[in-house]
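Build the 3D complex.
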Amino acid sequence: MPRKHGKDLNLTKKTNETQYAYAVSAVRVRQIKALETSDIDRMIAAPTDTAVLSILESKGWHSTGRISDVNDMLEKELSETWRYLSEVAPDPALFIPFILKNDFHNLKAGIKSVLSDYEADEYFVLPCTIPSDTMKKAVEENRFDDLPAPFDQLGEEMYDILVRTGDGQWSDVIADRAALDETLRCAEKTGDELIFRISELFVAAANIKIAFRSARFGKKEEFLERAVGSCTSLDRDRMIKAATEGVSALLEYLSTTEYADGTALLKTSPSDFERWCDDRAMGMLENVRYIALGTAPLVAYYLGKEAEIRNVRIILAAKQSGLPAPAIRSRIRRLYV
Amino acid sequence: MDFLGIILAVIGAALSVTLASIGSSKGVGMVGEASTPVLIDDPSKFSRLLILQLLPGTQGLYGLVVTVMVMLNIGLLGGNAPTLDFKTGLLYFFACLPVAFGGMTSAILQARVAVTGVTVVAKKYSDSTKAIISATLVEFYALLCFIASLLMVMNIPAVTGT
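Done.
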């Protein structure tokens, strides 16, 4: 079913801004310790990855000093951010569109792990809306009915595909498409314009990447119809048609959309397009620092932390592979400070 | 219909303290909520935060002063049941409105400015005086409403000649 156009969306829900006085102040106090551009510069200039960890420790990050624990540290940092947001926000459900993708990832990882005789929760990521224990039990005991919609039906379908055909890619395509649709549905349900606009950007970027990869590998229309989701800022049918015609046709269509500047980067490097999308999301939050009350400062807090973590991950990976400072700098995302 | 005048005057007096206090309690509460996380982080910032929190509280006080003035003027505080003609009662009623509505609105708006000031106290303590001055500017308009109400209430007996 085609999605409604922007003008038809109901994004007029008024939140009681004064309820957010405590929450906004609470996250702003936390943002005092956020990484700044100067910290990023210091990390880029640091001689080794362990020196980067020392800088993070001085900023209050809980590092063990061992590079092998970095993934745990980053995951804990983001989980703690989400836990704090949920604790202080009057209505934490509003921010679920930003973490919903992790639940879909956990469902995929859980089913695949069980079928490969690994522990179901070995590859789970946090934060997520469905508790890890619930997800683990559901996939291990094949009781997807215990999961909320749409995970119940999706889990059944993915499990069935993997058991019957062993086609992991097809199972992933179905899960990714469901994640995109559900994210946008949840964002629309919040009635919050900023949350919807940012979710729309993430979903549109994911759809563009799917279409671009499909065009490069010559995927058929049937595949694209299943993989590409809907969003208000892209004409889904035109994009699918263009993708089936090839990369040039797709880029030509995308040059007519609001993502033209970013998609031009796809020709040279898909990772540059990802950076463009992340920076655009941060750009949407630029004026939020002047907003005293409401949901926007909380959105900025969570997404700002995500951007910090993404940058730390990039810097650490670059340090391990010995990339020079200019190359690292070109990959760094914009920060919210 | 003799009682109508006194009823109108009492409604005006009640409105002036009630609405202004609603605004003040909302405002003080809002700034208090915003101040708590800053205090948890650094209790030494209490003094500046207290000033910001107190600012929206003055409107309730203005409302109370006007209420007391009305009650004194109509003789309600004397223990007798006064009589007041309809016209005088109506004059008291309208005289109370500036501090009632102006006080309520300005308290809430002042609290919003004070909430942003709390962020300044948290992030740039050295600039927090500027935030306090900004919030104080809103007070000026609450003060205008208070003075307007007070002058009207004080001069009503002279106007009516009672």
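Chain B has one domain: 3-157.
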